[in-house]
Amino acid sequence: MPRRPKPVDLHHLERTYQRVRHDRRAVEPEAPGDLAELKAPKWLTERQRAIWDDVIKRAPRGILRAIDAELVAAYCELVDRHQRAAEAQVRLDAGEGLPLLVRGASGLMQSPYLRVMSQAVLLMVRIQSELGFTPAGRAGLGSPKSPTAGEDNTWSVLRRFPVIDGGKG
Q1: Is residue 45 within 8 Å of residue 81, measured between CB atoms?
Q2: Mean pLDDT in the chain?
Q3: Average pLDDT, integer, range 18-39
Q4: DSSP letters along the chain, please?
Q5: Which residues lie closer than 8 Å to 156 by C-beta, 6 or more apart?
Q6: Measured between alpha carbons, how far is 76 from 45 in angstroms, rounded to an integer?
Q7: Are 78 and 123 contacting, i.e. CB atoms less than 8 angstroms apart?
Q8: Where are the domains of the chain?
Q9: How many CA atoms lie within 13 A of 93 on its CB side?
Q10: Helix 69-96 crosses helix 112-131 at what angle (to 10 degrees)?
Q11: Distance between CA atoms of 138 and 64, rounded to whole angstroms?
């Protein structure tokens, strides 16, 4: 499976932009609206809305757009599901004295809450990497600074090298 193409803006930031290569790409669409300006969806519970507010407050600035609302809401639901399963597992462990196990018809078996927690974590990690919530995901986003004008010019590299006067006149 081929690697996903890097955004042209990121090539500008890393100074790897090549006009011949990158100008023939279609213009990358910019999603309108900032997600920080939107309220949490109405279908979220109060607990999930509190998670929404916390996620929006701690998310990388200028990255989340209005189109990402459903993905962030799904992430909030997964965080809530994981927290509820962890709380239920703590109550279960305190009650029976058998950590991480429950009594079933065929004897001892793994607690069903552990499966819920592990599935929620797997989905949360996938969403986190897409939204830039992980260190590796943030590294792929690049710097929020925009390149200065004229820096994509090939001749701008020459400005970095000192010119030594040869003494001939």
Answers
A1: no
A2: 79
A3: 79
A4: -PPPPPPHHHHHHHT---HHHHTTSPPPP---SBGGGSPPPTTS-HHHHHHHHHHHHHSPTTT-BGGGHHHHHHHHHHHHHHHHHHHHHHHHHHHHS-TTEEEETTEEEE-HHHHHHHHHHHHHHHHHHHHT-SHHHHHHH--SSPPPTTTTSGGGGGGGSPPPP-S--
A5: 150
A6: 10
A7: yes
A8: 34-143
A9: 11
A10: 150
A11: 12
On whether the CB atoms of residues 165 and 102 are closer than 8 A, the answer is no
Residue 120, pLDDT above cutoff 70: yes
Full-model pTM: 0.66
85-92's contacts with Cβ under 8 Å and 24+ in sequence apart are 85/113, 85/116, 85/117, 85/120, 86/113, 86/117, 88/113, 89/113, 89/114, 89/117
Tokens found for residue 25: 């790409």
pLDDT tens figures, 125-153: 999 888 878 776 766 665 554 444 445 55
Q: Are 131 and 123 in contact (CB under 8 A)?
A: no
Angle at 16 (CA atoms; ends 68, 163), nearest 5 degrees:
140
- pLDDT tens digits for range 37-68: 889 999 999 999 999 999 999 988 778 888 89
